[in-house]
Every structure is written in C-alpha cells, then in structure tokens.
C-alpha cells in the first residue's frame, strides 16, 4: 500500500512538473512570437521596452520607456516622415513614435521621440577663424547615403552675427574665398550680442540674446540629419510673426499652422 501511494505521488509530481514546464514553454513561445528578431518593431512587454533588433539604424536603446520618450504635446512634434507617408510599422522601424490624431491635417502622426539618436559632438578646438569640432554618428540614419562624420566650424564674425558651417570633411567642395581686407576673426569675443550653448549628444545648439536671455534659435528639439544632397536642421521659432523665406503667393506674413514652404533657387515662378 505504501509503495502504491509512493508511486501515485511520484506520478502526480511528475505530471505537475511536466505541466509547469509546458506552461513556461508556452509563455516563452508567446513572448518569442511577439518579439521576433529581424522585424525591428518595438513592443511593450511587462512594462519595459524590448527592441527586436537593437542594432538596426535609428532604433532606440533597450530598457528605455517608450511611453516617456513619446509623451509630448502635439505642438512639440517634429515630423519623422517628411519624405513620404509611413505606416505604424515603417515609422517604428525608423525608431520614431506613431500616435494618430483625430484630424489628418496638423501635427504629424509619426514623430521623433525625445533625445532621438544622432550625432555626437567632440570637443571644440580653437582655429584661426574661431572654433571647430567633429560630429560622429555611431549608427547610420534611415536616410540613404548619409554622412557618418561631419565637420563643424564656428567662424567669429561681427558682434551680431553667428556663422556655423557643417560639411563632409571627406568630400572637398567649392567654397568662395573671402576677399582681401575682410577680417578673418573678431578682435574681441566678449563683444558678441549672443551666447551659444552646445548639446553634445545628440548634437544641437541654442543661441540666446545676451541682453535678456531670449532664445533666438534652438536646434536640440529634433535630430540633425545629413546625407548626400540632403540636410535637415530643425529649430523652434522665436516668434509667431515671420515673413519672407522664399517666393510665395500668400500674404507677406507666413502661415505657421503646419505648412511647408519651398525655397526657390532659380528664377522660375512656382506652378
């Protein structure tokens, strides 16, 4: 009788162990199906962000809350799909946030999260004309033929002028030489009417008016993108009253309600 009870107990324990193993394997199979390698989607599993392919260009780093990165006011969104309309999958493959809004016109549905991976800025070193630094991108962006290393040159000019140049150091380009007699640098840097702050990772800069601290330009709001024949530099406007910026048939005062303006580079009327 004792032997039969012992055998029955062993069978019950073995069945329980096998059912527990099957349940755990079943859970693992479900989780693997939700996070399949190679699809490069972002999934929320048990409150943490899991990246299917952390090495894919543009993907955010692991163990970062997607909700906190994508929580921003619609007015603060910067379009991650300027080139074409993207589905949720295509948007998330770029490492961007996808949050549809009731109206199709207005703030973008696919937008950059906060601190989207971009260029890292090296130390500023003095030059004959001002300062220089190297910008490097650890992983390529979603743009074709993007440039992984850039040269940043800050030229000191008159007190009210800031001159920054971004270019590909590996590809020589034509540059207009300064005429003789034009000063190559400002005599006293303390006379500048502005201050410049640099964000090293991801790269961006903020220009403030020295007299009252007002922000004139802020490029830290969205990533810098630089590719062959393509440059994207985003910034917030210091005022809602803007005029100029190319030829257009609308009023002199520009409409800033999620509109696009074309800067024409040849003498041809827009059609």
UniProtKB/TrEMBL annotation:
Keywords: Disulfide bond. SUPFAM superfamilies: Galactose mutarotase-like, Trefoil. Residues 68-114 form the P-type domain. GO terms for molecular function: alpha-1,4-glucosidase activity; carbohydrate binding. This is P-type domain-containing protein. InterPro entries: Gal_mutarotase_sf_dom (IPR011013), P_trefoil_dom (IPR000519), P_trefoil_dom_sf (IPR044913). One of its GO terms (biological process) is lysosome organization. One of its GO terms (cellular component) is lysosomal membrane. SMART domains: PD.
